[in-house]
TrEMBL record:
Gene Ontology CC annotations of this record: Golgi apparatus; membrane
Domain CAND6/7 N-terminal: 26-163
Keyword field contains Ion transport: no
TM region positions: 181-201, 213-229, 249-275, 287-306, 318-342, 363-383, 395-416
Span of the signal peptide: 1-23
Name of this chain's protein: Protein GPR107
C-alpha cells in the first residue's frame, strides 16, 4: 500500500469514528504527538461559515539529523463528497493521475495553512492566528496532517468554527443541521412536563390504587423533562457563545439518572414488581446491580466523548466503550421480561386461572414488543438516520428519537396506569373456558 492510500484510509477511519456533535470554541493541547492525522472537528457550514485557528507554543522534534520540511505539516478541511472521491481514487490507483505523497498536496482538500506559512518556520514558541471563510455550504472535517516521518508535534490549538445568522449577523456556533436543537429540546421538555402533570393527576385521582412503581415512573418522566431542559439551555448557550458552562454538570447528572431510571423501570415492570409481588428474585436483583454500574461507565464514556473530542488518542476507544455498554444494558433489561413470560406460561398449566394468566401473558407480550421496538429504533434506526440524513437536517434524527421516546412513555404510562382492576388482576370466570382454549392453542402452536 502506497503512502497516499494509507493516508486516505486513515482519513476514512477518522471520519467513520466521528459522531456528529456540536462545535465549541475549544483549546486543545497536543503533546509530542506523532499521528499522521488528527481530527479536530466536524461541522456543517452554511451562510457566513468561518474557521479560526490559533496556534501557540509550537514545538517540533524529529528523530532525524536534518530539520523537517514545514510544508509537510498543516491544517486542512475535507468534505464528505471529497472524501468519497479520494477513497475511489485510492482504490483505483492506475486511473488516478492525482496520486500524492502527502495529503496536504491532495486536490480534494481545502488547504488552510502549513507550518511554512507560520512565522519563522514554526520554531519553538511561535504562534499563528488566522480566520478562513468557508464559501461552500457543506459539512467539513478539520484535520491536522503530519506527513514528515519521525516528527512529533507539541502545540496549543485554539479553534473557533461558526456560521453567521442571516438576520442578525451574529455568530452561530452550532452546525447548520443542529441550530434548531435548542427549540426542539425545549418543545419536548414541555411535552414531558405535560405528561408528568397528567400522570400526577391520574395518580391523585386513583390514589387508592397507586403502587410504588407509579412513583418511580413519575420520577422517570420528571428526570426526562429536567434533562431536556438542561440540554436545551446548554445547546442555546453553545449556540450563542461557543463555550460550555456550569450547566454541563446538571446535563450529565440528569443524563445518568435518566438512563438508570429508564432501565430500572423496564426491569421492575417486566418482573411485575409492586403489581404482582412486593419483592424481586435474586436473579432480577443481579440484573439491576449489573445495569446501574454499566450506566455509570456509559455516562463516563459519554462525558469523555462530549467534553473532549476526536483529537484525543483514545477517542475511538471511548466511542466503542459507549456503544458496547449501551447495547449490553439494552440486552440485560430484556431478560426479566422474558423470564416473566416463561413463568406465566408454566403457571398457566397448573394454577387453574387461565383467564388471569392469559391477560397477564398478553400484557407482557405487548410490553416486550414495545420495549424491543423502542430500544431497536433509538439505537439502530436513529443512528442510521443520523448517517444518511443530509448535514442540513441532522436535527431530524434527534426529533425522531424524542418522538419515539414520547410514544414509548405514553404507552408505558397508559398500560400500567393505576386502576382499581388493573389488567394484572383481571379475572372473569365467564371467560375462563375461552382462555383455557386459547392457552391450549398457543401451547400447540409453540
Amino acid at each position: 500500500m502506497d503512502k497516499n492510500t494509507l493516508l486516505i484510509l486513515l482519513i476514512s477511519l477518522s471520519a467513520l469514528a466521528a459522531t456528529p456533535s456540536f462545535a465549541e470554541i475549544k483549546t486543545t493541547r497536543i503533546q509530542s504527538d506523532t499521528r499522521s492525522l488528527i481530527l479536530f472537528e466536524r461541522f456543517g457550514f452554511g451562510y457566513g461559515g468561518h474557521v479560526s485557528v490559533t496556534l501557540t507554543g509550537i514545538s517540533i522534534t524529529t528523530t532525524h539529523s536534518s530539520p523537517p520540511d514545514p510544508s509537510l505539516l498543516g491544517f486542512f478541511l475535507l468534505s464528505d463528497e471529497e472524501l468519497l472521491q479520494a477513497q475511489y481514487d485510492s482504490q483505483n490507483p492506475k486511473s488516478n493521475p492525482n496520486s500524492v505523497d502527502c495529503v496536504l498536496e491532495s486536490p480534494y482538500i481545502q488547504h488552510l495553512f502549513n507550518f511554512k506559512e507560520v512565522s519563522n518556520g514554526a520554531g519553538a514558541g511561535d504562534s499563528f492566528n488566522k480566520t478562513f471563510p468557508v464559501a461552500a455550504h457543506d459539512e467539513y472535517r478539520l484535520f491536522f496532517a503530519d506527513c514528515a516521518p519521525g516528527v512529533s508535534v507539541t502545540m496549543d490549538v485554539h479553534t473557533e468554527i461558526y456560521n453567521l445568522d442571516r438576520s442578525s449577523g451574529r455568530r452561530d456556533y452550532l452546525p447548520i443541521g443542529e441550530t434548531q436543537l435548542p427549540f426542539l429540546f425545549s418543545f419536548f421538555a414541555t411535552v414531558y412536563t405535560a405528561i408528568l402533570a397528567v400522570w400526577i393527576y391520574v395518580c391523585y385521582s386513583k390514589r387508592l390504587s397507586v403502587h410504588r412503581i407509579h412513583l418511580v415512573m413519575a420520577s422517570l418522566v420528571l428526570i426526562k423533562a429536567l434533562y431536556l431542559i438542561c440540554a436545551a439551555e446548554d445547546k442555546h448557550y453553545v449556540k450563542v457563545t461557543g463555550t460550555p458552562h456550569g450547566w454541563d454538570v446538571l446535563f450529565y447528572l440528569f443524563q445518568f439518572l435518566k438512563g438508570v431510571l429508564l432501565f430500572t423501570v423496564i426491569v421492575l415492570i417486566g418482573t411485575g414488581w409492586s403489581f404482582l409481588r412486593p419483592f424481586l428474585q435474586e436473579r432480577e436483583k443481579k440484573v439491576l446491580m449489573a445495569v446501574i454500574p454499566l450506566q455509570v461507565i456509559d455516562n463516563i464514556a459519554s462525558i469523555v466523548i462530549g467534553e473532549t473530542g476526536p483529537f484525543i488518542k483514545d477517542w475511538v476507544t471511548w466511542n466503542q466503550v459507549f456503544l458496547l455498554i449501551d447495547v449490553a444494558c439494552c440486552c440485560a433489561v430484556i431478560f426479566p421480561v422474558v423470564w416473566s413470560i416463561r413463568s406465566l406460561r408454566e403457571t398457566s398449566k397448573t394454577d387453574g386461572k387461565a383467564a388471569r394468566n392469559l391477560t397477564k401473558l398478553t400484557l407482557f407480550r405487548k410490553f416486550y414488543i414495545v420495549v424491543v421496538g423502542y430500544l431497536y429504533f433509538t439505537r439502530i434506526v436513529v443512528y442510521a438516520l443520523r448517517e444518511i440524513t443530509s448535514y442540513k437536517y441532522q436535527w431530524v434524527s434527534a426529533a425522531a428519537e424524542e418522538i419515539a421516546g414520547v410514544a414509548f412513555y405514553v404507552f408505558l404510562f397508559y398500560m400500567f396506569r393505576p386502576e382499581e382492576k388493573n389488567e394484572y388482576f383481571v379475572l372473569d370466570e365467564e371467560e375462563e373456558e375461552a382462555a383455557q382454549v386459547a392457552l391450549r392453542e398457543e401451547e400447540f402452536e409453540l
